[in-house]
Amino acid sequence: MATGGPSFAFHLPTRIHVGEGLLSETGRLTRGLFGRPGAGDAGRPVATRRALLVTDPGVRRAGLTDLVRQSLEEAGFVCECFDGIEPNPKDRDCEAGAAVARVFGPEVIVAVGGGSVLDAAKVIALLNTHPGRVGDYEGRGKVTGEVTPLVAIPTTAGTGSEVTRSAVITDTVRNFKFTVKDVRLAPALAVVDPLTTHALPRDITASTGMDALVHAVEAYTSRPANPMSDTLAAAAMERIFPALRAVVADGRNHLARYDMMVGSTLAGLAFSHSDVGAVHCLAEALGGLYDTPHGVANSIFFPAVTAFNAQADPAKHARAAAACGLPVAGLSPEEATTALVEAIRDLARDIGIPAFASLPRVRPADFDRLAEASFANGSTPSNCRPITQEDYLRLLGESWAVGPGRRPR
Fold first, then answer.
1. Which of 24, 131, 169, 319 has the most crowded CB, counting CB atoms within 10 A?
2. CATH class for domain 15-197?
3. Whether pLDDT at 120 is above 60
4. What pLDDT sits at residue 38?
5. How many of the other CB atoms lie within 10 Å of CB of 228?
6. Average pLDDT over residues 225-234
């Protein structure tokens, strides 16, 4: 039957506030989740509300959690803090946080940190209202009721987790990353303050920024993409690609930090209404086995997978190149996609992404295992080009031989 285009749904459950200095407004904005100022949703004073802060030791040492706590307490909330989240959040972190939540009894959870903290906080919010362990909710459709409301405050411009409906968690028994996905996990409120990223080290700025760019490109080119996600993804690429090199060069560049933060949030909205693809499948396999930082892992596989996928849809990859601001006018789709792959490789080199072969502990002897885990990832069917386990194995080999920022031999 002929059709004019895809059927799709768009559901945005998160209230988003963006602006410099909003961290100090967290209490007021959070209070708004409970009805009119000064009262709970049932007329109960907000002073009786409990807020559990979820963060990691680094963010807490930086003082960002203290600023949020002060704002919440000034707004009348009683606060407790859990800072036991590791990079690539583990099932044990989520369950430890949930144990704290069940004792404290929060009516709102406020997460302050990068993607690891925000993803873990989603699961803590889930386990605070649902029985069992995090692994019981792997996949889609396992969340049966409402979770504790979540306020998400990102401190990196990378994952977009402040507006997504999924949490990626490492199973410490299987050394495998799995996803819990449900619209109920989406934060109720996102407080997006670019100033929280100004003190980030150069390497974290670089790797998390590449993660945001991967989100935008994969959302744009993946099979479930639709006109709404395309619009968001293109807007994200337009901001992220030129801003990333600038912000790595000068972390105090206010405009570049702003564009990265807004771009990351746009990319999060895009892929949560589309999906990611083979770059993420490989990156999550790598992170599950070796605990490799997620942004680094994405960056490593980004060029090779983009070249692989572009063969399935050169025209759309050419439009992605244009959205990134590359000078591709007048080029054929194939020429434009070649320019996109080379620009990604050059960007990774210029901002200091390490080569695959330089990562600690990684061994080609594990590539079969990594290919198997990549193929098992739930986003494999979303990749814009059909991909097999053997294809994943070849992409691992190509990325090992070339690496970001290095030309093919």
1. 169
2. alpha beta
3. yes
4. 43
5. 16
6. 97
Identify the band that residue 40 occupies on the pLDDT scale cut at 50, 70 and 90.
very low
* Domain range list for the chain: 15-197, 202-401
Residue 131's contacts (CB-CB under 8 Å, 6 or more residues apart) are: none
Label the pairing between strands 50-54 and 108-113: parallel
Q: Distance from first CA to last CA of the chain, Å, rounded?
A: 47
Q: Does domain 202-401 have CATH number 2.60.40.10?
A: no
Q: Copy the structure tokens of residue 340.
A: 């996109």
pLDDT in tens, 286-307: 999 999 999 999 999 999 999 9
Q: Note the pLDDT tens digit of each residue in 129-180.
A: 999 999 999 999 899 999 999 999 999 999 999 999 999 999 999 999 999 9
Q: How far apart are CA 102 and CA 109, in angstroms?
A: 12
Residue in this structure with the two tokens 């992605």, named with its chain if needed: 320
Q: How much is the average pLDDT of 18-37?
A: 90
Give strand pairing partners of 177: 170
Angle at 42 (CA atoms; ends 39, 43), nearest 5 degrees = 40
pLDDT band at 4 (very low <50, low <70, confident <90, very high): confident
247-266 pLDDT, tens digit each: 999 999 999 999 999 999 99
